[in-house]
Amino acid sequence: MASSRFNEVRTMGSRVFPAARSGLPVAFLLSAVLCAPITAQDAFTARIASVDSIFRPFDGTMTPGCGVGVSDAHSIILERAYGMADLEHGVVNTAETIFEPGSVAKQFTAAATILLALDGEISLDDDVRKYIPELPDYGQTITIRHLLHHTSGLRDWGSVAGIEGWPRTTRVHTHTHVLDIASRQMSLNYPPGEYYSYTNTGYNLQAVLVERVSGMSFAEFSKKRIFEPLGMEKTQWRDDFTRIVADRAIAYRSGRDGGWSMLMPFENVHGNGGLLTTVGDLLRFTHNLDTGELRGGPVHRGDAPPGDPQLGADHQLCQRALHRGVQGDPGGTAQRSHRGLSRLPHPLSRPGDRGGGHVQRLQRELRRVGPQRGGPLPR
């Protein structure tokens, strides 16, 4: 960037001093360039270079990479891609690459559930067994709100499947498997609402609940009520892992020999994860969290509608989910706060969920990158 800026200023100088050909005028021009004040564009370019340096370890032709997107005041100020989307076929990541971002998907599941509550189709204090009677009667009510908050006492179905001998990635798990495992849990880990324990089961059950209440598949409901209204054109659920998805990145894990091997989520469970999306589409959803665009109202800010005094606060789950785990605290349970909301970090248990230190460095750099010639979010 330094050389291109120098060339640009030299061209401007030649127009001001067209006859300047000796060493002295050239030296004068150089000194003028070196003494010129640093512009906002120069500072922004330097900050972008700092961000690029964070992801340099992932920016090669022999390593999987990532995508990064940043918005400020609802304008995109940064979109970057690093490394490879497909090592086998030599495909590089771009800003349009589709990633599967793990448990980031949970905020969309929470949003779908809360949309049903806002529609009056369910109450968050309903007994889950009203919609999912396959669950045993534990003598204590598990509410939809408990599923949202990871306070149901239900065990994580993936952990149970692993004990059974079929850990995730070893067979094609479906929601039928999830229901079968959950229906066989004869007791809870704790009384509902008393403790917090992160569990995917609650979010898979929400996906099943949305299907049964809406009469649509969870993927169809999400598309109609969330993705299409927000212009998230490249976002979908991985409800059929065999479907061809153009521009999708391959997931990898590193081996002890320093090489890479594929680790794709060959399963059809979704709602807990399984979202396929781009950094640009995620920025569109973030914009909605700040504006309440889906409902055209301020519920996302905690203003509760009549009849459900806690619904507004529960809608902030989407915001909590968006910021969960950004400190890179693997498996920790230290409570923190963000924008006045308490939150608990996500256990970084999935292969490929790594790079907490890089996230911290990115946060530090982005705090120093102000908005610069950003454009409105396209629709």
Give a description of the structure.
It is built from 13 helices and 11 strands. With 379 residues, it is of the alpha+beta class. The strands form 5 sheets. A 3-stranded antiparallel beta sheet has the order 1-2-11, covered by helices on one side. The chain has a two-stranded antiparallel sheet with strand order 3-4. A two-stranded antiparallel ribbon has the order 5-8. Helix 4 (106-118) packs antiparallel against helix 12 and helix 7 packs across helix 8 (201-214). The longest helix is centred in the N-terminal third of the chain and has 15 residues, at 2-16.
Calculate Rg over CA atoms: 25 Å
- Could you say which structural class the secondary elements and strand pairing correspond to? alpha+beta
Mean pLDDT rating? 76
Please report the number of helical segments. Answer: 13
**Amino-to-carboxy terminus distance:** 31 Å
Furnish the topology, listing elements before pairings.
Blueprint: H1 2-16, H2 23-35, H3 40-54, E1 66-72, E2 75-82, E3 84-86, E4 91-92, H4 106-118, H5 144-149, H6 157-164, H7 175-183, H8 201-214, H9 218-227, E5 236-237, E6 252-254, E7 260-262, E8 275-276, H10 279-291, H11 311-315, H12 317-323, E9 336-338, E10 341-343, H13 356-366, E11 375-376
Helix pairs in contact: 3-13, 4-8, 4-9, 4-12, 7-8
